[in-house]
Amino acid sequence: MFFSIGYTRYETDHIPLRLLILGIDYLQEPVSRPYGIPIWQCFQVSEGTAILKISDKQYQINKGDGFIIPSHIPHEYHAQSDLLRMNLIGFDGNCLTVLAQDLGISNPGAYHFAESSFFLHTTAKFEKLLCTGSPDLQHVGLNQKLIASKQLYSFLLDLSENISLLKASAPEGSHPISQQIAVYLEDHYNEDISLEQLSASLGYSREYICSIFRRDMKKTIITHLTEIRIAHARVELLSNSDKKIAEIASDCGFASPSYFGRKFKEYNHITPEQYRIRKMIR
User: What is the spatial order of strands in the sheet that 31-33 belongs to?
Assistant: First the structure.
Protein backbone atom coordinates (compact mmCIF):
# COMPACT_ATOMS: atom_id res chain seq x y z
CA MET A 1 0.00 0.00 0.00
CA PHE A 2 1.38 3.40 -0.98
CA PHE A 3 0.02 6.91 -0.37
CA SER A 4 1.17 10.26 -1.75
CA ILE A 5 -0.21 13.50 -0.26
CA GLY A 6 -0.32 16.86 -2.04
CA TYR A 7 -0.14 20.32 -0.42
CA THR A 8 -1.16 23.80 -1.58
CA ARG A 9 1.34 26.67 -1.47
CA TYR A 10 -0.44 28.06 1.61
CA GLU A 11 -0.23 24.70 3.38
CA THR A 12 3.44 24.33 2.49
CA ASP A 13 4.17 27.74 4.01
CA HIS A 14 2.10 27.31 7.17
CA ILE A 15 2.28 23.63 8.19
CA PRO A 16 5.64 23.12 9.97
CA LEU A 17 5.94 19.37 9.31
CA ARG A 18 4.32 17.74 6.31
CA LEU A 19 3.64 14.05 5.73
CA LEU A 20 4.20 13.47 2.00
CA ILE A 21 4.56 9.73 1.45
CA LEU A 22 3.35 6.70 3.36
CA GLY A 23 4.19 3.14 2.38
CA ILE A 24 2.94 0.10 4.29
CA ASP A 25 4.46 -3.32 3.59
CA TYR A 26 5.45 -1.85 0.23
CA LEU A 27 7.11 -4.14 -2.33
CA GLN A 28 10.33 -2.24 -2.91
CA GLU A 29 12.09 -2.11 -6.25
CA PRO A 30 15.82 -1.24 -6.52
CA VAL A 31 16.46 2.50 -6.09
CA SER A 32 19.45 4.59 -7.19
CA ARG A 33 19.37 8.34 -6.59
CA PRO A 34 22.80 9.93 -7.21
CA TYR A 35 21.49 13.36 -6.17
CA GLY A 36 19.00 12.28 -3.51
CA ILE A 37 15.46 13.68 -3.42
CA PRO A 38 14.11 16.89 -1.82
CA ILE A 39 12.34 15.17 1.09
CA TRP A 40 13.34 13.14 4.16
CA GLN A 41 12.67 9.42 4.22
CA CYS A 42 12.52 6.92 7.06
CA PHE A 43 12.23 3.18 6.32
CA GLN A 44 11.78 -0.06 8.18
CA VAL A 45 12.31 -3.45 6.53
CA SER A 46 9.18 -5.56 7.06
CA GLU A 47 10.30 -8.56 5.00
CA GLY A 48 13.62 -9.59 3.52
CA THR A 49 17.02 -7.92 3.75
CA ALA A 50 18.11 -4.62 2.19
CA ILE A 51 21.50 -3.30 1.15
CA LEU A 52 21.83 0.47 1.63
CA LYS A 53 24.66 2.51 0.14
CA ILE A 54 25.32 6.10 1.20
CA SER A 55 28.50 7.82 0.01
CA ASP A 56 31.26 5.25 0.50
CA LYS A 57 29.40 3.34 3.22
CA GLN A 58 27.37 0.18 2.85
CA TYR A 59 24.86 -1.25 5.34
CA GLN A 60 22.98 -4.51 5.56
CA ILE A 61 19.46 -3.87 6.90
CA ASN A 62 17.72 -6.90 8.36
CA LYS A 63 14.02 -7.36 9.05
CA GLY A 64 12.83 -5.01 11.77
CA ASP A 65 15.69 -2.54 11.32
CA GLY A 66 15.59 0.58 9.18
CA PHE A 67 17.35 3.65 7.85
CA ILE A 68 17.00 7.43 7.60
CA ILE A 69 17.88 9.47 4.53
CA PRO A 70 17.71 13.28 4.84
CA SER A 71 16.86 15.38 1.79
CA HIS A 72 19.33 15.67 -1.10
CA ILE A 73 21.60 12.89 0.19
CA PRO A 74 22.82 10.59 -2.62
CA HIS A 75 21.82 7.00 -1.92
CA GLU A 76 20.82 3.65 -3.32
CA TYR A 77 19.21 0.56 -1.87
CA HIS A 78 18.07 -2.81 -3.12
CA ALA A 79 17.02 -6.25 -1.93
CA GLN A 80 19.68 -8.68 -0.84
CA SER A 81 17.06 -11.39 -0.51
CA ASP A 82 14.56 -12.46 -3.18
CA LEU A 83 11.85 -10.22 -1.75
CA LEU A 84 12.03 -6.83 -0.05
CA ARG A 85 9.05 -5.16 1.60
CA MET A 86 9.35 -1.95 3.56
CA ASN A 87 7.37 0.52 5.59
CA LEU A 88 8.11 4.09 4.57
CA ILE A 89 7.42 7.59 5.86
CA GLY A 90 8.42 10.53 3.64
CA PHE A 91 8.18 14.06 5.00
CA ASP A 92 9.55 17.60 4.97
CA GLY A 93 9.05 20.84 6.87
CA ASN A 94 10.46 24.27 7.52
CA CYS A 95 11.59 23.34 11.04
CA LEU A 96 12.87 19.88 10.16
CA THR A 97 16.60 20.54 9.90
CA VAL A 98 16.89 22.17 13.32
CA LEU A 99 14.50 19.67 14.92
CA ALA A 100 16.41 16.67 13.58
CA GLN A 101 19.69 18.08 14.84
CA ASP A 102 18.23 18.68 18.31
CA LEU A 103 16.89 15.11 18.41
CA GLY A 104 20.12 13.55 17.15
CA ILE A 105 18.58 12.03 14.01
CA SER A 106 20.05 14.33 11.35
CA ASN A 107 22.68 11.89 10.05
CA PRO A 108 21.85 9.41 7.29
CA GLY A 109 22.44 5.77 8.07
CA ALA A 110 21.03 2.47 9.27
CA TYR A 111 19.32 2.07 12.62
CA HIS A 112 18.10 -0.60 15.00
CA PHE A 113 14.72 -0.03 16.65
CA ALA A 114 14.60 -0.76 20.37
CA GLU A 115 10.91 -1.58 19.92
CA SER A 116 10.45 -3.31 16.57
CA SER A 117 6.68 -2.66 16.52
CA PHE A 118 7.15 1.10 16.98
CA PHE A 119 7.40 1.94 13.29
CA LEU A 120 4.44 -0.22 12.27
CA HIS A 121 2.21 1.35 14.93
CA THR A 122 3.13 4.79 13.57
CA THR A 123 2.33 3.94 9.95
CA ALA A 124 -0.98 2.38 11.06
CA LYS A 125 -1.93 5.66 12.79
CA PHE A 126 -1.13 7.63 9.65
CA GLU A 127 -3.08 5.19 7.49
CA LYS A 128 -6.15 5.46 9.72
CA LEU A 129 -5.98 9.24 9.60
CA LEU A 130 -5.54 9.46 5.83
CA CYS A 131 -8.30 6.97 5.08
CA THR A 132 -10.79 9.07 7.07
CA GLY A 133 -12.84 11.15 4.67
CA SER A 134 -11.95 11.58 1.01
CA PRO A 135 -10.24 8.59 -0.64
CA ASP A 136 -8.40 11.05 -2.91
CA LEU A 137 -5.20 11.75 -1.00
CA GLN A 138 -4.39 14.74 -3.19
CA HIS A 139 -7.39 16.38 -1.52
CA VAL A 140 -6.85 15.39 2.08
CA GLY A 141 -8.49 18.05 4.23
CA LEU A 142 -6.48 20.73 6.00
CA ASN A 143 -7.56 19.44 9.39
CA GLN A 144 -6.22 15.96 8.55
CA LYS A 145 -2.93 17.47 7.44
CA LEU A 146 -2.61 19.44 10.66
CA ILE A 147 -3.27 16.30 12.69
CA ALA A 148 -0.71 14.46 10.56
CA SER A 149 1.79 17.25 11.31
CA LYS A 150 1.26 16.76 15.06
CA GLN A 151 1.59 12.99 14.71
CA LEU A 152 4.74 13.45 12.64
CA TYR A 153 6.26 15.59 15.41
CA SER A 154 5.44 12.89 17.97
CA PHE A 155 6.90 10.27 15.63
CA LEU A 156 10.21 12.15 15.40
CA LEU A 157 10.38 12.52 19.18
CA ASP A 158 9.70 8.80 19.64
CA LEU A 159 12.11 7.93 16.83
CA SER A 160 15.00 9.59 18.64
CA GLU A 161 14.30 7.39 21.67
CA ASN A 162 13.84 4.14 19.75
CA ILE A 163 16.84 3.97 17.46
CA SER A 164 20.49 3.12 17.72
CA LEU A 165 22.88 3.65 14.85
CA LEU A 166 24.07 0.50 13.11
CA LYS A 167 27.63 0.42 11.89
CA ALA A 168 28.49 0.19 8.23
CA SER A 169 29.79 -3.09 6.90
CA ALA A 170 33.03 -3.20 4.97
CA PRO A 171 32.75 -1.01 1.85
CA GLU A 172 31.96 -2.62 -1.46
CA GLY A 173 35.17 -3.66 -3.16
CA SER A 174 37.07 -4.00 0.10
CA HIS A 175 39.29 -7.00 0.80
CA PRO A 176 37.39 -10.21 1.68
CA ILE A 177 39.29 -10.33 4.97
CA SER A 178 37.81 -6.97 6.01
CA GLN A 179 34.35 -8.24 5.15
CA GLN A 180 34.90 -11.44 7.16
CA ILE A 181 36.15 -9.44 10.15
CA ALA A 182 33.19 -7.04 10.07
CA VAL A 183 30.71 -9.92 10.00
CA TYR A 184 32.56 -11.83 12.72
CA LEU A 185 32.66 -8.81 15.06
CA GLU A 186 28.93 -8.16 14.63
CA ASP A 187 28.10 -11.81 15.29
CA HIS A 188 30.42 -12.19 18.32
CA TYR A 189 30.59 -8.68 19.81
CA ASN A 190 29.35 -9.96 23.21
CA GLU A 191 32.22 -12.45 23.51
CA ASP A 192 35.82 -12.02 24.64
CA ILE A 193 37.57 -11.33 21.33
CA SER A 194 41.33 -10.93 20.93
CA LEU A 195 43.34 -10.05 17.84
CA GLU A 196 45.37 -13.23 18.31
CA GLN A 197 42.22 -15.35 18.29
CA LEU A 198 40.86 -13.49 15.26
CA SER A 199 44.06 -13.82 13.26
CA ALA A 200 44.30 -17.54 14.09
CA SER A 201 40.71 -18.17 12.95
CA LEU A 202 41.38 -16.37 9.65
CA GLY A 203 44.76 -18.00 9.10
CA TYR A 204 46.71 -14.76 8.71
CA SER A 205 49.06 -12.86 10.97
CA ARG A 206 47.76 -10.25 13.39
CA GLU A 207 49.77 -7.52 11.64
CA TYR A 208 48.35 -8.45 8.23
CA ILE A 209 44.65 -8.45 9.20
CA CYS A 210 45.06 -5.21 11.16
CA SER A 211 46.71 -3.53 8.16
CA ILE A 212 44.04 -4.70 5.69
CA PHE A 213 41.14 -3.68 7.97
CA ARG A 214 42.58 -0.24 8.72
CA ARG A 215 43.12 0.38 5.01
CA ASP A 216 39.51 -0.49 4.13
CA MET A 217 37.63 0.80 7.17
CA LYS A 218 39.86 3.78 8.10
CA LYS A 219 39.96 2.60 11.72
CA THR A 220 41.33 -0.25 13.81
CA ILE A 221 39.61 -3.56 14.46
CA ILE A 222 39.34 -2.77 18.17
CA THR A 223 37.75 0.62 17.46
CA HIS A 224 35.18 -1.00 15.19
CA LEU A 225 34.42 -3.66 17.81
CA THR A 226 33.97 -0.99 20.49
CA GLU A 227 31.60 0.97 18.27
CA ILE A 228 29.49 -2.14 17.70
CA ARG A 229 29.37 -2.84 21.43
CA ILE A 230 28.41 0.76 22.25
CA ALA A 231 25.63 0.68 19.63
CA HIS A 232 24.16 -2.48 21.15
CA ALA A 233 24.54 -1.04 24.66
CA ARG A 234 22.44 2.00 23.71
CA VAL A 235 19.66 -0.31 22.59
CA GLU A 236 19.92 -2.37 25.77
CA LEU A 237 19.78 0.71 28.00
CA LEU A 238 16.44 1.73 26.51
CA SER A 239 14.78 -1.60 25.77
CA ASN A 240 15.69 -3.14 29.15
CA SER A 241 15.18 -0.26 31.55
CA ASP A 242 15.25 -2.54 34.62
CA LYS A 243 18.53 -4.20 33.72
CA LYS A 244 21.52 -3.05 35.73
CA ILE A 245 24.31 -1.14 34.00
CA ALA A 246 26.87 -3.78 35.02
CA GLU A 247 24.76 -6.50 33.43
CA ILE A 248 24.42 -4.54 30.21
CA ALA A 249 28.17 -4.00 30.15
CA SER A 250 28.76 -7.75 30.45
CA ASP A 251 26.09 -8.64 27.88
CA CYS A 252 27.68 -6.29 25.35
CA GLY A 253 31.18 -7.70 25.76
CA PHE A 254 32.84 -5.14 28.03
CA ALA A 255 35.37 -6.49 30.51
CA SER A 256 34.15 -4.36 33.42
CA PRO A 257 31.40 -1.81 34.24
CA SER A 258 34.01 0.91 34.79
CA TYR A 259 35.58 0.38 31.37
CA PHE A 260 32.12 0.33 29.80
CA GLY A 261 31.22 3.60 31.51
CA ARG A 262 34.44 5.24 30.37
CA LYS A 263 34.07 4.16 26.72
CA PHE A 264 30.34 4.97 26.65
CA LYS A 265 31.03 8.53 27.84
CA GLU A 266 33.82 8.85 25.29
CA TYR A 267 31.40 8.07 22.45
CA ASN A 268 28.21 9.69 23.78
CA HIS A 269 29.55 12.47 26.05
CA ILE A 270 27.31 11.32 28.92
CA THR A 271 27.32 8.31 31.23
CA PRO A 272 25.11 5.25 30.58
CA GLU A 273 22.90 6.27 33.52
CA GLN A 274 22.50 9.80 32.16
CA TYR A 275 21.78 8.46 28.68
CA ARG A 276 19.03 6.18 29.97
CA ILE A 277 17.40 8.93 32.08
CA ARG A 278 17.60 11.58 29.37
CA LYS A 279 16.02 9.33 26.76
CA MET A 280 13.30 8.07 29.10
CA ILE A 281 12.14 11.54 30.17
CA ARG A 282 12.40 13.25 26.77
Answer: 31-33, 75-79, 50-54, 57-61
User: Which amino acid is it at 254?
Assistant: F
Distances in whole angstroms, Cα of residue 130 to Cα of each of 59, 123, 138, 268 = 32, 10, 11, 38
> What's the pLDDT tens digit per position in 199-212?
998 999 999 999 99
- If asked whether residues 149 and 39 sit together in one domain, one would say yes
Picking from 112, 132, 165, the residue at the C-terminal end of a domain is: 165
Which phi and psi angles does 232 have, rounded to 5°? -70, -35
Residue 205's domain comprises 176-281
Count of CB atoms situated within 10 Å of the CB of 231: 20
Closest CA to 61 of 103, 18, 28: 28
Answer whether 22's CB lies under 8 Å from 3's CB. Answer: yes
pLDDT band at residue 135 using 50, 70 and 90 as cut-offs: very low
Q: Is 86 helix (H, G, I), strand (E, B) or coil?
A: strand
CA 7 to chain centre: 28
Of 86-90, 128-132, 190-194, least confident by mean pLDDT is 128-132
Length of the chain, please? 282
pTM of the model: 0.63
Total Cβ atoms within 10 A of residue 234: 24
Question: For residue 141, what is the domain's CATH number?
Answer: 2.60.120.280
Q: Summarize the confidence of residues 125-153 as an average pLDDT.
A: 80
**Closest CA relative to residue 168, chosen from 45, 51, 87, 80:** 51
